Automatic annotation (TrEMBL), chains A, B:
One of its GO terms (cellular component) is cytosol. Belongs to the class IV-like SAM-binding methyltransferase superfamily. RNA methyltransferase TrmH family. InterPro entries: Alpha/beta_knot_MTases, RNA_MeTrfase_TrmJ/LasT, SpoU_MeTrfase, tRNA_m1G_MTases_N. Residues 2-151 form the tRNA/rRNA methyltransferase SpoU type domain. It comes from Desulfurococcus amylolyticus DSM 16532. Keywords: Methyltransferase, S-adenosyl-L-methionine, Transferase. This is tRNA/rRNA methyltransferase (SpoU). One of its GO terms (biological process) is tRNA nucleoside ribose methylation. It holds the Pfam family SpoU_methylase. It comes from the Archaea.
Length: 234, 234
């Protein structure tokens, strides 16, 4: 299941064209979070994506729009900033080829034309993905970015292999994340480090494509670590 | 040398956005044949592609726009019609990977929003390329089509992007693996579990595409964990 989530979209032309592109590449669901653009006006630019746009879910919060999805993917043209844990993006190529094909349901978030996604919005995602474009001007128009991302995913979706193991469920990954947070609280000295460690682990779990089997062993490993550290405390 | 040729483009928004996309993907030249769209108006939508649009060559004929180019490529969403020699298109994938990298100078033609390229215009090209999209609605907006084609060609031209973070080195990953082994030895009860934990971590580090920044924090996290556990032992 592929869902596109537009957060705070501003331009009706962009919104209409994106709806059309969603149909061109067979997107299952479109969610629109707090749009500034008029959907009524956007319908004029949707061509045969009109019905799809009319079926889009408009929500008041990002949380509603990503509920129940296995993998939440933020996008940004600012994919990299050396000292910033939030700006450690995966290249669209690696994402489309490696991470996306292994996931049952994916929501891809695109931010405002003017300012993109906020840091808080990005931190709600499992992975940050970027389109590696011209270093001197990598900022694409949002509808172009959607088109390129959808095209890359489209190419991957037609291949269904059966000789690959099932991936860990979202619930399993959540439990693993909780375990790492417990450990971080035991070993880290500041709140900031605990927070950043949480982002790190969210990214690791988002990117590592753990199979069910691997996740089970990692859980055991983390539980052992936690037990040893907490016995130290008592 | 990569040249984009827009034939009879109708919409100023499309024209502006296409100019921007050309800069995003480092196109060398833009030719505009008999435009219907106002270039003046299009400048409003070009963002930092403005100067590139101002430098575009406007011509009265397609011949002028493809003169001196090694390979002329027409594009159409009608890539295939069984009995029609003109509609025997190459898949964009095959083109970008096989044909494009072997050619010194390429002009890619995009037709009108309403009616595309005429049969006569297509017949002037060496190759017809199509984007294989949703069979029930493969017709992309022209600016989306340009974006996807440019993205595919961009990947072949291997210009190094700077908005993606550098990945951790192999040596860094090896050090991280060693750290996990040390911890496993402290917390695991059997040799077999230590061995399997090592395999697990090797896989995690192999798949997670850790950036340098992420690896540095993970190292710190593991070091903290190790210190807490070994103080427990002494």
């Amino acid at each position: 299941m592929l869902r596109i989530v537009l957060v705070g979209i501003e331009g009706p032309v962009n919104l209409g064209v994106i709806a059309r592109t969603c149909v061109n590449f067979n997107v299952d669901e479109l969610y629109i979070v707090k749009p500034i653009a008029s959907i009524e006006e956007a319908l004029n630019y949707a061509a045969r994506g009109r019905d799809f746009l009319l079926k889009a879910r408009v929500t008041d919060s990002l949380e509603e729009a990503i509920k129940g999805v296995d993998l939440v993917v933020a996008t940004s043209d600012e994919g990299y900033s050396a000292g910033d844990m939030l700006r450690q993006a995966v290249d669209l190529n690696g994402f489309a080829e490696k991470i996306f094909p292994r996931t049952r349901s994916v929501a891809i978030l695109f931010g405002r034309e003017s300012t993109g996604l906020t840091r808080e919005e990005i931190s709600k995602a499992d992975v940050l993905v970027t389109i590696p474009a011209n270093p001197s001007y990598p900022a694409l128009n949002i509808s172009q970015a959607v088109a390129i991302v959808l095209w890359e995913l489209w190419k991957q979706r037609s291949i269904t292999a059966t000789n690959i193991p099932p991936l860990a469920s979202k619930e399993t990954l959540r439990q693993l994340l909780d375990l790492t947070v417990e450990i971080s609280k035991l070993v880290m000295t500041t709140e900031d480090k605990i927070t950043r460690s949480r982002i790190l682990w969210r990214r690791i779990l988002g990117k590592a494509l753990l199979t069910e089997k691997e996740a089970a062993l990692l859980r055991y490993w983390l539980q052992r670590v936690r037990r040893h550290i907490s016995s130290d405390k008592t």
